[in-house]
Amino acid sequence: MRTKKMGNQTIKFKNPPIILSTASIVGAKEGEGPLAKYFDKIIEDDLYGEESWEKAESKLVEDAVRLAVTRGELQLADIEYMLGGDLLNQLIATSFAASKLQIPFFGLYGACSTMTESLSLASIIIDGEFANKVIATTSSHFATAERQFRFPLEHGNQRAPTAQWTVTGAGAVLLSSTGEGPVITHITTGKVIDFGVVDANNMGAAMAPAAADTIATHLKDTGFKPNDYDLIITGDLGKYGKEIAIDLLRKEGHKVKNVFSDCGNEIFDHEKQDTHAGGSGCGCSAVVFCGYLIDQLKNKKLNKILLVSTGALFSPTSSQQGGSIPSIAHAVTIENVSIK
């Protein structure tokens, strides 16, 4: 019998997982942005002392996980599962990090929705009493993403006004069945939505329908109103995708504008840093949550948020063959509530 399901796509946890600790590591450009003071570590060199950008991204993941575990006053051996992924082929950033960390590992691919995908599944594991300590992580890197999805950096290609800047960064969230901290009370699993957008330089437009669909479904399933939240924040819709999502939700009768934001809009100063439509990448929602948002929750400046990481589920192959960009978004409710 389903005792935790609400509506079609939402789960309300009976044993809400506690966010015991987080860690966020970012690149130099992110460290020049408006959220710089909230990040745990800012690296000066995008190679991070490694031989390639891909190895650098893997090191970001490894170090973020180690930092979150240390901050939770635990050892790596105490962590029962690690869930995570990245944008690279075969998840090499995360899987190579997992080989060094030696934590039982589930590799995930949700494109830039991977932060809330990993949080969702980690929460199910803890609520289901399959484990007590689980870590969720994800990463991205500007240079690795450009090399895989667009053009070699050496080309110096002109970027379209709708293009976004992939965040260099990794975030890790340590979830526990016991302890103190904000808790995850609900998750809403998204559907793959495809509105036929084919422009890989306009991913905000491709992902906005998926974000709107998941948010609308979450509100329907739970009975919550937008103003029940202090903040509803998407992962990386950027400037244009955010506007589209707000408009789509308005047409569904949901007035979210006053509580709606986007991690891709928050992480950079678009005018001063020339990031065009804003930030993107798996690391975007990961480091904004693990740095800025968790700080606001712990200091009670926010008490209930809906984090909706957004992902464009395309590949270089599908893009080069003229395929559209199907997208997905997963939502996680995080609250300051007491767990007895």
Structural commentary:
The protein is α/β, with parallel strands linked by helices and 340 residues long. The chain folds into two domains: 5-176, Stage V sporulation protein AD (Peroxisomal Thiolase, Chain A, domain 1, 3-Layer(aba) Sandwich); 184-335, Peroxisomal Thiolase, Chain A, domain 1 (3-Layer(aba) Sandwich). The protein is built from ten helices and 15 strands. The strands form three sheets. It has a seven-stranded mixed β-sheet with strand order 1-2-10-15-14-11-12, with helices on both faces. The chain has a six-stranded mixed β-sheet with strand order 4-3-9-7-5-6, sandwiched between helices. It has a two-stranded parallel sheet with strand order 8-13. Strand 1 (5-6) and strand 2 (10-12) form a beta hairpin. Helix 1 crosses helix 2 (92-101). The longest helix has 20 residues, at 203-222. The protein is globular and about 50 Å long. The two termini are 25 Å apart. The mean pLDDT is 93.
The total count of strands amounts to: 15
Please state roughly what percent of the residues sit in beta strands, choosing from under 5%, 5-15%, 15-25%, 25-35%, 35-45% or over 45%. 15-25%
Query: pLDDT below 50 for ≥5 consecutive residues: which ranges?
Result: none
Measured between the Cα atoms of the first and last residue, the distance is 25 Å
Annotated CATH architecture of the largest domain: 3-Layer(aba) Sandwich
Order of helices and strands: EEEEHEHEHEHEEEHEHEHHEHEHE
Q: Write the CATH homologous superfamily of the largest domain.
A: Stage V sporulation protein AD
Helix content: 25-40%
Count of helical regions: 10
The coarse overall form would be globular
Order of strands, main sheet, comes to 1-2-10-15-14-11-12
* Structure class: alpha/beta
Number of domains: 2
- State the CATH topology of the largest domain: Peroxisomal Thiolase, Chain A, domain 1
Could you give a short account of the major beta sheet? 7 strands, mixed
